[in-house]
């Protein structure tokens, strides 16, 4: 019967001190080899040694390892899908998509305002559109999940410049006022009175001059002494009421405009903007694109015309901006564009 040796060291068993492995030399035939002896914990006098072994414990440990690996793989796949959703543009942001709301959602998901400052103006197309290139690293910034992003976009030069001019007019224009022969008492709710008092300067920017009569009853203390005038656009107390309603949901002091004023600014912005058919140099194209990074809503002009759409993902068509400005393989670009169209 073979001797059974339990390799578990008991507390009451004295073992010889362990020594570091030492090199020994043995002769096998005519050749001499060097071997390192294993560390010996306990030896038996017989050739056969049986070691205590729990197969169920091994199976349980292996099962736990497999479960942990599966969880890690699922977590990585989820992280990759989330990363791709933030960095990859699909067809919803392209020219073929007529749904502006869907395209805007796709663009705003992958383009941050600082991106406009680093976009490169590649050239002008058909004297109406600017071709720009956005190159950056996307991901968490730890180098593990970072991905290369290299995309071409087309910018409508008129729509983009119009939106910039529109938002500038919205923020900076003070509408002229015309004094009334006698102040007009405004019938306001208590809440509207509070809003009017908190936004006196904003209302003045919109052309409405107000006086506060502290001796009058609540709801009748606000008097309008002047109303806005601007060319053929006529304003009245209904426009003031619209402004007060808009101010209800915004912080005090934030600029708001009534619908008549916005329509007036949109018309002015359109007339003063870069027109289709105007040739632009690289400095002018870069200025138009960089202005988009200063806008609250850069994705369409005040008349609803889109300012930007995605053209193509250039990753894998011959350019790696981390390695150098190598020439783009435009033949490969054509194949990518053709497959995207299909």
TrEMBL record:
Organism for this UniProt entry: Dichomitus squalens (strain LYAD-421)
Cellular component aspect of the GO annotation: MutLalpha complex
Annotated keywords: Coiled coil
Coiled coil: 55-82
Region annotation Disordered: where it falls in the sequence: 1-39
Pfam families recorded: MutL_C
Top-rank taxon, per record: Eukaryota
GO terms (BP aspect): mismatch repair
SUPFAM superfamilies with a match to the protein in the record: DNA mismatch repair protein MutL
Gene3D superfamilies linked: MutL, C-terminal domain, dimerisation subdomain (3.30.1540.20), MutL, C-terminal domain, regulatory subdomain (3.30.1370.100)
Compositionally biased intervals (Low complexity): 23-37
Record bears the keyword S-adenosyl-L-methionine: no
Protein name as catalogued: MutL C-terminal dimerisation domain-containing protein
GO molecular-function terms, A-Z: ATP binding; ATP hydrolysis activity; ATP-dependent DNA damage sensor activity
MutL C-terminal dimerisation domain mapped to chain residues: 121-280
SMART domains named among the record's database cross-references: MutL_C
UniProt entry tagged with the keyword Coiled coil: yes
């Amino acid at each position: 019967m073979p001797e059974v040796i339990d390799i578990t060291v008991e507390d009451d068993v004295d073992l010889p001190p362990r020594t570091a492995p030492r090199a020994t030399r043995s002769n096998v035939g005519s050749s001499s080899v060097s071997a390192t002896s294993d560390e010996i914990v306990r030896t038996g006098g017989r050739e056969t040694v049986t070691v205590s072994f729990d197969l169920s414990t091994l199976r349980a440990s292996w099962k736990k390892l497999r479960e942990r690996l599966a969880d890690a793989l699922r977590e990585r796949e989820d992280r990759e899908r989330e990363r791709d959703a933030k960095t990859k543009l699909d067809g919803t942001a392209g020219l073929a998509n007529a749904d502006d709301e869907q395209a805007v959602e796709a663009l705003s998901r992958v383009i941050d305002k600082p991106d406009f400052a680093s976009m490169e103006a590649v050239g002008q197309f058909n004297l109406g559109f600017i071709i720009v290139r956005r190159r950056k690293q996307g991901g968490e910034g730890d180098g593990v999940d970072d991905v290369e992003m290299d995309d071409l976009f087309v910018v409508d030069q008129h729509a983009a410049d119009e939106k910039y001019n529109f938002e500038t007019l919205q923020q900076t224009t003070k509408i002229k006022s015309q004094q009334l022969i006698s102040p007009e008492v405004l019938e306001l709710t208590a809440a509207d009175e509070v809003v009017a008092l908190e936004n006196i300067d904003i209302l003045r920017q919109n052309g409405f001059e107000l006086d506060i009569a502290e001796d009058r009853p609540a709801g009748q203390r606000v008097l309008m002494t002047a109303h806005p005038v601007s060319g053929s656009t006529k304003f009245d107390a209904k426009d003031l009421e619209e402004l007060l309603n808009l101010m209800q949901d915004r912080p005090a002091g934030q600029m708001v405009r009534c619908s008549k004023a916005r329509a007036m600014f949109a018309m002015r912005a359109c007339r003063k903007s870069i027109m289709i058919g105007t040739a632009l140099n690289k400095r002018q194209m870069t200025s138009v694109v960089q202005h988009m990074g200063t806008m609250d809503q850069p994705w369409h002009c005040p008349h609803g015309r889109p300012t930007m759409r995605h053209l193509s993902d250039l990753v894998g068509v011959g350019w790696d901006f981390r390695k150098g400005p190598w020439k783009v393989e435009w033949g490969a670009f054509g194949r990518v564009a053709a497959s995207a169209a299909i």
